[in-house]
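Example record used in the benchmark description.
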Amino acid sequence: MRWQILIFFLLVWEFRPIVSAICTLYPAGSLFQEQFHTYSSNGLLDVRLIFQRDITDDGNVEYCFLTQDGVRSPVLHVNPGDELRITLTNAVSGGGAPATNMHFHGFHVSPASGQDEVVVTQVQPDGGVFTYSIAVPATHFPGVYWYHTHVHMAAEESVLGGASGMIVVEGLEATVPDLAGMPVRTLTLRDNLVPGLEEMHDTRGPSWDLSVNFVPVPYPDYPPVRAVLPPSAVELWRVVNACADSLLDLQLQYDGVPQDVRLVAMDGAPGTNAALQSILLPNGARAEFVVRGPDLSVRTARLVTLPIDAGPVGDRNPLRPLLSLIPTHGAAP
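Model output (structure tokens):
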């Protein structure tokens, strides 16, 4: 009997929700935080994610998907033909605790229950558990996709709060061979409430603040996230507009001059290879492009999102910086 009790407690410990983890953002102006990456092995990526909620000092409600180790929103790497298995626990509790689920945005997979179905599947709060088992087709396009909550009538709040993450289907190098071995930088761009401003009635600032990998770029000063890289470094940037509401128009500027970037894939469709000076990303869009970083003669190098006029009743999307690129000898690529 003792060994049965011991096994019971070991199982409870193994599958416990992390109730003390938090979803709050990093401090504004922080260094760029590369995301945590997890990879499939022997045809399977098996992850456990916990849906959690946190209320900040200024009243914002933040949501996140956490691993058992407390890592937020890991980047999930799979190969065509793999199985993606996600055990999702809803650890949110208390008043107004929402149900949750997961949508795999852009995936060419079955809408059946247990795969990419969002109408019926709802993981209830206070410890509800559901397992997704997704068969990634062997013919699936490589590129960037993303996962996020998709409970109807509750999705906006939780996506604004940060409940989203990137997925990479491997194999883009087969289409664009020069990407092999190239350093990769991943950016998940999210939006969230602007403290103190009402969504549609205060025209002093943007409708929504933005963040880069959970580092905020808040109104009114917009301190950019600081990214250190070797001078003239060539990198592949994988970017997701994981915003619930904000439109983005990305441009790389060196001393105020727009720079060309080479677009190698858009929304999981490889092969464009176009030189562009801006990339428009509506909500949910993904882009993969090659960047040549600034050399030491450049005084100010920034990734910005250009202003977008959404009309008299649309959201306000002003010009604002996202990243400040700092060329430094000895920086890791």
